[in-house]
Each structure stands twice: as C-alpha cells, then as structure tokens.
Design brief:
4-stranded mixed beta sheet; 19 helices; 13% strand; single chain; 515 residues; alpha+beta; 5-stranded mixed beta sheet; globular; 62% helix
Length: 515
C-alpha cells in the first residue's frame, strides 16, 4: 500500500494505517506503537526498552492526530509500557477538540526538537509578513532555516521574529542557528545570519575578516602557463567526443541543467515526463551493458518504449474496466491480505506485464525477427522503462497534490519522487525483461510457444503483484532483490537453457517426441 493510501485509510479511522503513521517516526526512537479505534476513542499503546517520555510522546501523538484531521477520532488515550512489564508505567488522555491544549502540546513538541512542530510554529509566526520557512532541518545541534518570499525577506525583521520565537521555545538540543533569506525562484540566498544560542537569548555570530593574501603566493601563480593548467584546445577538439564514455558523461551531466533552462515555464506533466526519460536512460545504458543484445537497433528500442507509454497504457486502462479485472482491482483495497495479493497478482501484475510485453510480441516475435532471448529481454526491459516513465508522470500529480494539501512533508515528497523516478523504473524493466526473456525462448521453441509465454507471464506477474502487496515492509524489499538476482540468473544460465530448448525443438520436428 502506498503512503497516499495509508494517509487516506488513516483519515477514515483505519487502525492499521494509524499504527503505520505513528511507527514511521517513533521507531527511530526505539518506540513501537499500536493503535485501536473504539467508539471515537483512539487507544495507543507505546512499548520501549526505556520508559517513553510522557510529555514528548503525548505531544507528538497529538500533533500527528491533529495534522491527520480524522473526524471519527474525538479523544485519544495513550498507555506506555517498559519492556515486558504487565502494567503501563504511565497513561494520558486528551481531546482533539481543545485548541489551547493543542497549541501547548505543539510548543512542547517543538521544544523537544521536533522539526515538523518547529516548522508549524514558524509558519504561523511569519504568515502575516508573507514569508515562508521553505526548509528547516537540525544537524549537529544546528538549526538551519531557509526563508522565502516573493521579494527578498527583510533581514532585520525576519531575524527579530525568529529570535523571539526560538527564545520562547527554549529548544535545549540546539546550540547554533543559521538563517538564509532568498527571493522565490532564486537558487542562491540573498543574505545569511548565524546565531549562538545562550540562556534565553540568541547572540549574532560576526564572521572574522580573512587575512590579506601573501604577495609571494601571487608571484608563484604567475609562473604557471594558462594553457598548461587549462588545456582548453584539447578539451574542445573533435577527437575527444569520439569516445562513448565522454558522450555519456556529457549527456547525463548536462541533460537536467539543459531542461532547467528550457522548461522553466513548462507544466508538471511535461517536466516529469522529461525527467522520467532521463532517469530511465541511465538504467537503459546499464541494462544494455548487462545484456549486450545481439540484434540491437535504436528503432526497435524507441518503438517498444513509446508504444507502451502512449498505446499500451491506454489499452491497459481499458481492460481495467472489463470483468474480471474490475473485481480484481477492487480486491486491492480489501483489508484481507490474501484478497490484496490475488488482486495485485492476477489484476495489476497480469495486465501491466502483458501491456509491457505487447510491443515485443507485435514487433519482434510475431514477424519472426527474434533469434535469441537476450535481444527480447532487452526490448522487454526498454518497454518496461517506457511504462515506468508514463506511470511516473501520473503519480507526480498525486505527490504534488499530497504536498500542497499538507498530507506529506518535503522530506517524504523528495523521497517518494526519487523512488518513483530512479528505483521503480529498474524494477519495471526487470519484470518486463524476465517476460521478454521467455518471449525469446518461445521464438526458438515454437512447438511449446504458448506454454513458455504463460510461464513467463506468470513469473513476472507474481513478482510484480507480490511486491505491490508487501511494498511497505521488508518482504517487499526482499522481493525486489530476488527479482534482480533471478533476472541475472536467467542471463547466466542462458546458454544451457537455449541449448535445451533447441534440442527439444529438433526432437519435435523429427517426430521423436510428442507434446
């Protein structure tokens, strides 16, 4: 289940989803939470080897529940256990309708060093000035804050507001504060101020002036020839660009910057599509080097990728509305794990893997162009990358909406986009590459083509659907690792498998074996 689905279920009062939200942050402090909702009262059990701090724990839970905004939750009861004790070491109860208590709990949570609580308080403090704390982080006892506004934030006013709020919070874990101010759409801050945190005050740190440069050092620099230390003629020579390595370095190094120059006014969808192609191209190079397909062509590569992105996915969306796939997709939202697994494997897994295999079948297998499984595995993987790019564009809108509505923070937004555009394209390519490999085996063993295609679809669909079912836990992590290892194993054993297929096909043609 994705994070967006977890948030949605938690708002409805789903105990498992609420438990998942609480553990996402509490487990880093060695605390395990379990939540149960009964009669509009959420009961939360906290377990830890050490006694959980009551003030901080209650403040955090209140903060999460207030931010969640679940209308079915009116009161919250918190119980804390240490180790294997039979009785709780403390308990607390609060109502989500009491605004004054919420503000006090938020202040206590911020005083303990919680970044989200600090951000919420500072957002309120700067709101009237049309200044937004864009980024807030704590590292090595240093609080770093980036302030943004349509015009450069006034340094004196901004630092005065900030000092007032931080002195009021008395955050014990913070020793220094660094503040940056910049105008919206600008990358480099216009001004910077650093403070040292004392007892009830913030003292500005004034940087010391650097010593004048040594004249002898400048004289030494003049002894070097410019074209010796900067061989620009060699760097600009045409011979250098004949290397594929140099071309790849230039492409992957300059592509995002080039996009930033020409796509500033483009919409989210266009930018997400272009970046998806960029990240998928990286995996394309890796997979090409791994497979080294004997029958490579740019035309087939582009046809497989773009067919899936622009034709295969609309076909997929159509079949999602056709029985029995409509029922299988509904099973995904069930609470029962078995129902989810069946829906993800037989619904999502089968449809999406068949969608990715369709161009390999139409353009390569059906016309009889395939001669080896390495080539079909490569083009299957390229189709998978095309699928991942198109899917990433769709999900980018969801993630942007989640960020804009406050359902996710900046850290999670960056993480989930990285996973969607960097990691998941590889796994879509791997699953499609496995099915593509079996399509290649079917090409050299046509007498058993139907059975081979069925086995290939089954393996890729099971891996895909199983990962979707268990993606939020370690089991999902293991399924991804096993998918990669299985794909590589097929490639390593390819000579043996192909030899067995060819022998079986010769026997069938000779009439010695009947299938």
């Amino acid at each position: 289940m994705t994070q967006a689905n977890i948030n949605e279920q938690a708002k409805k009062g789903d105990s498992k989803a609420i438990t998942s939200l609480l553990n996402r942050s509490l487990q880093t402090y060695g605390i395990i939470a379990e939540a149960v909702l009964q009669d509009n009262c959420l009961q939360v059990w906290l377990k830890s080897n050490q006694v959980p701090d009551q003030t901080t724990s209650v403040a955090f839970i209140r903060f999460v529940m207030t931010k969640l905004g679940a209308s079915v939750i009116k009161t919250v009861k918190v119980y804390a256990w240490q180790g294997s004790e039979d009785l709780p070491c403390w308990d607390a109860e609060f109502s989500l309708d009491n605004l004054d208590n919420q503000q006090e709990e938020l202040k206590q949570l911020a005083s303990s060093g919680n970044v989200e609580a600090i951000a919420k308080i500072l957002n309120t403090a700067f709101n009237k000035q049309n200044i937004k704390p864009a980024k807030i982080s704590i590292k090595d006892n240093c609080l770093q804050i980036l302030l943004e506004s349509p015009q450069t934030p006034n340094q004196s006013l901004s630092t005065a507001i900030l000092r007032k709020e931080l002195v009021r919070l008395k955050i014990q874990s913070i020793k220094t504060v660094k503040v940056y101010g910049r105008e919206l759409q600008q990358e480099i801050p216009t001004w910077f101020q650093e403070f040292s945190v004392g007892v009830g005050k913030l003292t500005p740190i004034i940087p010391t002036k650097t010593a004048p440069q040594n004249p002898e050092f400048l004289a030494t620099l003049r002894t070097f020839k410019f074209d010796s230390v900067v061989p620009f003629k060699d760097a600009l020579s045409g011979q250098l660009y004949s290397s594929n390595i140099v071309r790849l370095l230039l492409f992957f190094g300059l592509f995002p910057l080039a996009i930033s120059l020409i796509a500033r006014s483009s919409g989210l969808g266009a930018i997400a599509f272009i970046l998806g192609i960029y990240y998928s191209s990286i995996w394309g190079v890796v997979l090409y080097d791994l497979l080294k397909p004997p029958a490579f062509s740019w035309g087939s590569t582009l046809k497989c990728s773009f067919f899936t992105a622009f034709i295969g996915i609309p076909i997929l969306l159509f079949f999602q509305k056709v029985p029995p796939f409509t029922l299988l997709y509904k099973a995904i939202d069930q609470e029962a794990l078995i129902g989810q697994l069946i829906g993800f494997v037989l619904g999502v897994g089968v449809l999406e893997e068949a969608c990715k295999a369709l161009p390999v079948y139409l353009f390569l297998l059906r016309p009889g162009k395939l001669q080896d499984p390495f080539t079909s595995a490569f083009y299957g993987a390229m189709s998978g990358l095309g699928f991942a790019v198109a899917e990433g564009v769709q999900y980018s809108y969801r993630y942007a909406l989640s960020l804009a509505t406050g359902q996710s923070d900046f850290g999670f937004y960056v993480l989930i986009n990285t996973i969607r555009f960097v990691s998941l394209p590889l796994y879509h390519a791997i699953w499609a590459g496995i099915f593509g490999y079996f399509i290649g085996l079917a090409a050299i063993n046509p007498s058993r083509k139907g059975s081979i295609l069925f086995i290939g679809l089954t393996i890729s669909a099971v891996l895909h659907g199983s990962y979707n079912t268990f993606s939020s836990g370690l089991l999902g992590f293991g399924i991804l690792g096993f998918s990669i290892l299985l794909f590589v194993t097929y490639l390593n054993r390819s000579q043996q498998i192909v030899s067995e297929m060819e022998k079986a096909e010769l026997l069938v043609r000779a009439g010695s074996v009947k299938f």
